[in-house]
């Protein structure tokens, strides 16, 4: 057993323990040529970084030949396409970006969770823990967990349960592709970029996300998303996110308000950075 | 070897991909270089802060505060909590604070052994 499969077995054991179920059995690697490492195309467990972003591939960042140019995540937050907003949702976006421009900032300072769909993008690490009944997708910044239920349950009645930042997600397998259906998302989440809408105009309560998740190979996970929102979008928004496996790396605790010295001037909206106090000030 | 690429990593993140704030408080078009002694390292979330004591031309010591990336970014790049130590003689390049205070956003540090790392 190589180190990767040892890690996988350990990961599955941990998840099995945590969720009280047995790990799934390899489904798709039977019949692999002799000498080829078997792997399960339905096993998404692991730590993933958005391919080509931030700290994904250090070799790529050095500019070595044959590597791809890094993405600038300042505005699109890693999505490869942009939605076509309309009506009050478009005006909300334009006003928010104009306010950012006037305040000399790239985006609004926030420690609030992004929610869906921005949760799945960005430069920080994603840790996927999976068993037969559920997937927990943990986003390192700022520590959100997106739960995908695989046990056949229906979405809740929206009249009975409040909408949430991550929404409610159910998944079913089509071959080796997990098709995830998400509804009931709070209207202050933004369709792209980070932060939240102060006026609950990030999108409407009709937003519906379908994400088709599959392994391209053992180390690359693809998410193809389609977002429908007839109130907020000119047409359905389609995007593709590709993640790169980082075996051996761990989630690092992120505490946005711990030693935070960033704030916004309430009068001008400009970002303020205060120098923290030294524990041992100079004499 | 890994530490050599940190400069590029952090240059990539500066002003582009930090999730917590947007660097508007710093003049990202200006660079200031200082030399001094590391007096304190606050290896904390959401950002790591370094304090460097610099000998003032008029005598005495000036305290400079330098903001770096968060621990998750730095650790993933190979910059651990004990990579920069109190007492290290360092050269620091930074984007200065717009309000004129002795502080800035870290571009790079040259450590006593000559290695260069970024923030």
Structure in words:
The complex is a heterodimer of chains A (283) and B (119). Chain A is of the alpha+beta class. Chain A has one domain (43-245). Helices cover 13% and strands 25% of the residues of chain A. Chain A is built from 3 helices and 11 strands, in the order H-E-H-H-E-E-E-E-E-E-E-E-E-E. Chain A has helices at residues 3-19, 58-61, 87-102; strands at residues 46-50, 126-130, 134-139, 144-149, 168-174, 177-183, 208-217, 220-228, 237-245, 262-264, 271-273. In chain A, strand 10 and strand 11 form a beta hairpin. The longest helix of chain A has 17 residues, at 3-19. The model of chain A is unreliable at 1-30 and 58-74 (pLDDT under 50). Chain B is built from 2 helices and 6 strands, in the order H-E-E-E-H-E-E-E. Chain B has one domain (2-20, 27-118): OB fold (Dihydrolipoamide Acetyltransferase, E2P), CATH 2.40.50. The longest helix of chain B is centred in the N-terminal third of the chain and has 8 residues, at 6-13. Chain B has a 5-stranded mixed beta barrel with strand order 1-2-3-5-4. With 119 residues, chain B is mainly beta. Chain B has helices spanning 6-13, 71-77, and strands at residues 32-42, 49-55, 61-67, 89-96, 103-110, 116-118. In chain B, strand 1 (32-42) and strand 2 (49-55) form a beta hairpin. At the A-B interface, strand 11 of A face helix 1, strand 1, strand 2, strand 3 and helix 2 of B.
